[in-house]
Design goal:
By secondary structure, the protein is α/β, with parallel strands linked by helices. It has helices spanning 30-54, 71-78, 97-100, 106-109, 131-134, 155-174, 188-200, 210-216, 219-233, 248-263, 276-280, 282-290; strands at 58-65, 87-91, 118-122, 177-185, 240-244. It is globular. The model has no long low-confidence stretch (mean pLDDT 95).
């Protein structure tokens, strides 16, 4: 995949999703793609081990995309070499009653990664400026002062949410969390094919919901709000990547390699230096342990 440079997918200026590809041609077999991804996974795993020992940084991976974009399988394939203690996946669904008793960022804040660990958000705090914009009636469940009806939700309301999200990410980044955000950019035709496969393959029937078709009718609205959210919140400390997602294997590689490329720049992430006194007595400790036989 020599023709793929991860920086080409990083949002560094305003974008229009209609001009962003959903498919990248790669002159490599699927078997070769897997081998290349495996190498990237192994390198990520080594960095994660050093991060765990270094205990200074956390990594937050945010995944967004239309239904069927491949978030679940991407998580499985990209992080499969990680030590289980070093990565936690959070799948954010409709807020429950406890979560609704707090502000909309609360459940995301408490799920942030510990130092030395990765947190993967499968759907993220961006649902609060995406789904809620397509369905503003959902905001009523939050019991916000001054919001008594949908008509009370003004453009200023959304402006404030973007400001809050930007402030949240800036605060988190300034305290040692490396933030990388990925939008899995799927074409409408590819989604149609994937939904059909869910219906045609019995073991995948459970993944289908009639609601998927209702949301599909709102494709243009979702695209509009995704585009705005990405443009309003992609910053050097919390960049967005628009990942062509029509081919799942290629999308997985782009995400994994993007993470690796960023983390390799953190040259200060190193395993702690062994105390000199302990280092000088390693032979003595070995002798003690062998003498126990």
């Amino acid at each position: 995949m020599k023709n793929i440079e991860t920086t080409q997918f990083r949002v560094q200026q305003p974008i229009e999703l209609s001009n962003c590809p959903t498919f990248v041609k790669v002159d490599t077999s699927e078997k070769k793609k897997e081998k290349i991804l495996q190498k990237v996974r192994e390198n990520l795993s080594k960095i994660q081990d050093k991060m765990y020992a270094h205990n200074r940084y956390g990594v937050l991976i945010c995944l967004q995309g239309m239904d069927t974009a491949g978030k679940d399988s991407l998580i499985r394939e990209v992080f499969k070499e990680f030590n289980a203690r070093g990565v936690v996946v959070h799948s954010f669904k409709t807020p429950n009653s406890t979560e609704l008793e707090h502000d909309y960022l609360w459940r995301h804040y408490i799920a942030l990664p510990e130092k030395g660990k990765f947190a993967v958000f499968n759907r993220t705090h961006y649902e609060n400026v995406l789904v809620t914009r397509v369905h503003p009636e959902y905001i009523m469940n939050e019991n916000i002062p001054g919001i008594e009806k949908v008509e009370d939700i003004t453009p200023t309301f959304w402006e404030n949410r973007f400001e809050s999200i930007n402030a949240f990410e800036k605060h988190v980044a300034s305290n040692g969390v490396i933030i990388l955000k990925f939008f899995l950019h799927l074409s409408k035709e590819e989604q149609r094919e994937r939904l059909l496969r869910r219906l045609e393959t019995e073991k995948h029937n459970w993944k289908f919901s009639p609601g998927d078709l209702k949301e599909r009718l709102l494709w243009d609205k979702y695209t509009q709000y995704y585009e705005e959210a990405i443009n309003r919140t992609s910053h050097p400390h919390a960049p967005w990547y628009i990942v062509p997602a029509d081919n799942k294997e290629t999308a997985r590689y782009i995400v994994a390699k993007s993470i690796l490329d960023v983390l390799e720049k953190y040259t200060d992430i190193q395993e702690p230096i062994l105390d000199e006194a302990v280092k000088q007595n390693i032979a003595f400790y070995q002798e003690q342990l062998r003498a126990e036989k």
